[in-house]
Amino acid sequence: MQHGGSHRGSRVATNARLRSPRRPSPIESVIEHRIGNVTLQLTVGDITNQLDIDAVVNAANAELRPGGGVAGAIHRAAGPGLAEECAPLAPIAPGECVITAGYGLPNPHVIHCLGPVYGSDEPADKLLSNCYRGALELADHKQLSSIAFPAISTGAFGYPAAEAAGVALRTISEVATRLEKVTVVRMVLYSQGDLEIHTEVLDELHTD
Ligand code: AR6
């Protein structure tokens, strides 16, 4: 792996064997890309099983309640203390982020972001970009060194995966150059198909 501090950096694949996301383990396979001091990682896994990460991002609902998908998994793993801390922070608007403790999660913090509902919250790309930018800036402000994102809005909220990947990876690439504390940004994808989509989008972004 070349980490020589170049802006364009390098991308490497390690351990090509991928498992079903239903049987996640911390890092089975990682695509890495260096942006300034930040290592951007793409991997398949479960957002609730990121053992080495300071803050995991929740694809939240406006009320910051458990719900389904990522939010359900995060609240189940964290336990009821998370919903109690969330209650007075709600509601949040599309593109907004708030931070709480991680409770029973392996991570000290959760950053809850409300992504746009595709086809309804507009402009969707701006609102989705605000989630990634806001979460990264919040993590940096809190002096955290690592953050892991799920693919916000691409489940129940219906954002097409490739379009969302473009917004996510472009925003992370832009913001990464001015982060002072955060050095690891991980996208935790839930299927190998989503990993492939993100890998292609990352290649396109950084081969211009
Ligand atoms: N780890 C990583 N990724 C996951 C996991 C997991 N454990 N579970 C699902 N995904 P979603 P949204 C993927 O629906 O679209 C909830 O009901 C999933 O395959 O969690 O922002 C909330 O209460 C998809 O690619 O978030 C909200 O109402 C991505 O994570 C609403 O859904 C996001 O799926 C939020 O919808």
Main traits of this protein?
single chain, 208 residues, alpha/beta, Leucine Aminopeptidase, subunit E, domain 1, 8 strands, disordered N terminus
Any chance you could write out the topology, listing elements then pairs?
Blueprint lengths: L10 E4 L15 E6 L2 E7 L10 E5 L9 H10 L1 H7 L10 E5 L7 E5 L10 H18 L4 E4 L11 H16 L7 E6 L2 H14 L3
Parallel strand pairs: 3-8, 4-6, 4-7, 7-8
Antiparallel strand pairs: 1-2, 2-3, 5-6
Bound molecules: ligand AR6.
Ligand AR6 binds next to α1.
Largest sheet: 8 strands, mixed
What is the first-to-last residue Cα distance?
Answer: 21 Å
Give the averaged pLDDT, no decimals.
90
Proportion of residues in extended strands: 15-25%
Low-confidence stretches: 1-27
Q: Which second-level CATH architecture applies?
A: 3-Layer(aba) Sandwich
The molecules bound to the chains, other than polymers, are:
ligand AR6
User: Portion of residues in helices?
Assistant: 25-40%
The radius of gyration computed from the alpha-carbon positions, rounded to a whole number of angstroms, is 16 Å
| Global outline | globular
Structural class: alpha/beta
> How many helices does DSSP assign?
5
Total discrete domains: 1
